Predict the structure of Coenzyme F420 hydrogenase.
Amino acid sequence: MTSVAPHKKAKALKPNSRRPAKELCSECGLCDTYYIHYVKEACAFLNQQIAELEAEAHGRSRNLDSQDDWYFGVHQDMMAARKKQPIEGAQWTGIVSTIACEMLNRGIVEGVVCIQNTKEDRFQPKPVLAKTPEEVLAAKVNKPTLSPNLSVLEEIEKSGMKRLLVIGVGCQIQALRTVEKELGLEKLFVLGTPCVDNVTRAGLQKFLDTTSKSPNTVVHYEFMQDFKVHFKHEDGSIEKVPFFGLKTNQLKDVFAPSCMSCFDYVNSLADLVVGYMGAPFGWQWIVVRNEKGQEMLELVREQLDTQPVMSKGDRKQAVQQSIPAYDKGVTLPMWAAKLMGVVIEKIGPKGLEYARFSIDSHFTRNYLYVKRNYREKLESHVPEFAKRIVGQYKLPE
Ligand code: FAD
Ligand code: SF4
């Protein structure tokens, strides 16, 4: 039996008390546990340390001479993939849930940290330590709200588990990586998704109310590569709203301040990342960061169709034009938004170039947000790779 050196503990914060990162808190869950002891070091919004943690997790940090590293982080492989038999009701084709189920079925891990929803509300996240594939499948589909994934960390130690898979987004994974050594685990696997523009539950309601024609029947939505938000409704119908027609003036404050100051869109510290934005429409995008990530992907390889990543178009002008438009909160009339969507879809960036478009637009916006609201944090909070990405554009003061 291995013995674990006792780690330092502190008292978890009460649910509604102010968090150390104050309004920048993304409710990652760390402060709901005694691991709050490590918060000054671990919190993604108090101590940005992506390069150091990359070196620990992947054996190296981003190569700043490589633009692919700036954008997609440390990686050894990338591809587009989709499940031959998609999981009904998953966010995309269910690659994330399938990997987690395989890891449990084969005994590679004993538990999976994932996010179910509460009984009353399909979008209210409920972090769980799943021990069966059924519990993992009950966590399929995004709960597009801030989610305290790490609130189950104390449960892991109490359960005595030694091999664990954690599914999560960038800010949760940064904190996890910092306390990883304190969890008493023999093996930790991290399966990440990209994440951007997240909201509180109240913010989500405002977004649905201002954007969808039928906010109460939305079961799932995604900002798609065709420059439209696709809302899936309870009856299976799909409602499409062009990005350029979003009521940016009303939605400006809807995104959480944490997400307006985040530069870890691509989940730099996960072993394997599964998203969609670097892949053709209908496919998922897979980034393998290290050998553990490769091991996880191999478990489901036979269940996937795959194709190499591709890149087409030039995003730079569209990004430059979007900067002042967002800044001023311009909303196009719906007919113009639709027209612009059609034109951009025909000639616009595709594949990895679409992913770069999305990263550039969000990083320039977030850089301005941090500069205006947290100037004293700008230098240390913005990672070097993000400064180089933002440096390609002309920003307003
Ligand atoms: P599924 O098999 O349906 O599994 C989804 C998994 O997500 C579940 O295991 C669940 O535990 C976990 N989960 C659900 N809600 C949360 C949450 N709030 N926080 C942490 N984990 C959660 N991809 C892109 O390429 N570009 C984007 O801009 C992008 N934005 C995203 C924004 C948010 C808020 C989230 C949660 C994800 C985002 N993704 C983005 C990832 C993408 O939407 C899919 O989650 C991913 O491709 C996996 O799809 P799947 O069908 O394999 O997942
Ligand atoms: Fe604590 Fe996480 Fe909030 Fe930081 S983001 S203050 S670690 S709950």
